[in-house]
Amino acid sequence: MNQSEQTTSSFKAAAMTVAAAVAWIALYGNLEPLADLMLAIAGISRATHFGEALHFFIYEVPKVLLLLTAVVFVMGVVHTFVSPERTRALLSGRRIGTGNALAALLGMVTPFCSCSAVPLFIGFLQAGVPLGVTFSFLIAAPMVDGVALFLLLGTFGWQIALAYVLLGFLIAVVSGLVIERLRMEGDLEEWVQKLQKGDASAHDDRSVFTFSDRFREGLASVRSIVGKVWLFIVLGVGLGSGIHGYVPEEFMVSIMGKDAWWSVPAAVALGVPMYTNIVGVLPVAEALIGKGAAIGTVMAFMMSVIALSAPEMIILRKVLKPRLIAVFAGIVASGIVVVGFVFNLIL
To answer: How far apart are the first and last CA of the chain?
Structure first.
């Protein structure tokens, strides 16, 4: 291809990228009204259990898929500038815990629910970021963010808000460090292991890539990764929508409304099958506290709902083997139980 053809091809790729970005922003920003419109057309009221569950599903599936597509495309383009080997060397060369802390801090400034954080988790793995560091991000992103801080501040006061954020950050960092020390890279699915290793022979000289080459690399990544995980996303969000629409608050109050020694682990066990974000779970937390539940019990419940949802596990199953999922859930759940007991002791 001569210089003129390369220029024309790059211009077309740039125009397509801009058009796709505009369409992505427009669609992502109107998912809620679109979900409302689809329910209105179908004649289904959101005030019903089925209507709320269906609205949640219609809104959440495209949201997660759009996030995944954008992240994977960007990471595919980034790969044409920086090799996975260089990324791994950059993060692996830091002092122990520094990469985990940075990833957790990044998670804290990205307001994603557990399922929405999975696309960035995959993007981290795609970039060759160490496994433990990616988990620190995955845990912190839904559990500790600016929205959580301000909502907790307004609801429970600065002491509880600050304690929640600091302990959530600590869980993310320590859990990532433990997973890193266990050396469980072999428990990533084979296609993810290939992504991490990259194809060095195909990208030795990245300086010769044109914009159209980089555009094609991004599209290839989208086809490869989104094509593998989209069904798991639909299944995971489907489960989450059912829980979101049908599990009544009264049931949670009846189970957790007592201050007993077993309330913290029970709260974590109850929270894992749930699926919502800090905004959705906060009213339940207020109701539980109003019914006499201990602060630590409620905090443990909130953390488990946000960081260990069953839909998230379903989506992660396409990326992680069952043993790694079990280790991840066990480590995080143990940390949350400890935090719950600490809250009950000091507050």
So the answer is: 69
Spell out the residues 6+ positions from residue 77 whose beta carbon is closer than 8 angstroms to its own.
214, 215, 217, 218
Q: How far is the C-alpha of 342 from the C-alpha of 281, rounded, in Å?
A: 21
Q: 244, exposed or middle or buried, with CB in 10 Å at 0-12, 13-18, 19+?
A: buried
Q: What is the DSSP letter of 49?
A: H
Tokens at 168, concatenated: 């959530």
Inter-axis angle of helices 263-271 and 295-307, nearest 10: 20
Structure tokens at 44: 């289904």
Instruction: Check: CB of residue 130 under 8 Å from CB of residue 96.
Output: no
Question: What's residue 311's pLDDT?
Answer: 74
Say how far apart CA 254 and CA 19 lie, in whole Å: 52
Distance CA 137, CA 176 (A): 8
Predicted local confidence at residue 155, as pLDDT: 65
| Helices (H) then strands (E): counts for the chain | 17, 0
The predicted pLDDT at position 259 comes to 55
Chain segment 137-159, per-residue pLDDT in tens? 888 877 776 656 666 776 677 88
With CA atoms as reference, report the closest residue to 211 among 21, 7, 19, 2.
7
3-state secondary structure of 233: helix
Residue 224 phi, psi (nearest 5):
-70, -50
Does pTM surpass 0.85?
no
Structure tokens at 81: 């500038």
CA 288 to chain centre: 26
- Nearest-angstrom CA–CA distance, 154 and 173: 26
Mean local confidence (pLDDT), 269-275:
75
Return the residue matching tokens 């629409």: 245
250-274 per-residue burial string, b: 16 or more CB within 10 A, e: under 16:
eebbebbbeeeeebbbbbbbbbbbb
User: Averaging pLDDT over each range in 157-161, 175-179, 219-223, 254-258, which range is the top one?
Assistant: 175-179
